[in-house]
Specification:
Layout: E1 2-14, E2 19-25, H1 33-38, E3 42-47, E4 54-63, E5 68-74, H2 80-87, E6 93-100, H3 105-109, E7 117-119, E8 125-127, H4 134-150
Amino acid sequence: MQVTVKANFNKQTKDSKKELIQFYVKGDDEKKQELSQMTREVVELQIEGVEEKLTCEFSKTTKDGKKTTLEFIVKGDTSAEQSFNFYKKAGSDVTLHIVESQMSIDEFNESHDGIKYQVEKDGTAKVEDGQLSLDEFEKEEESESKLQRVK
């Protein structure tokens, strides 16, 4: 399912836990059934004129006498560049494409384990023993590459 609406990109806020994007929709686009059907789903947002797409949870839709507010929570692994290109459009009227994602809400909210590390006073990161260094990784790749050429 997908829907395209004309909207005002009201705001984009980010705190330590999540990034929120809010749009105001007015006029005939407010009445589109797809907006209420996709609420609480994972969607891909694209703004016309911005190449990047954002994967978001379509958090909620609220209506008052003047407008309909659409709120989206941005997926945690979104790059700063993707968010920044969206942010440049904040405060302006945009054509917003909302496409239902293949990702489930559970997958969207899933956290991923990272590598445990400690930042030293000189700014370097110290990882736990047993982690592969970049130099070791490159040597391994070279060895595998040579083995493939020999075959």
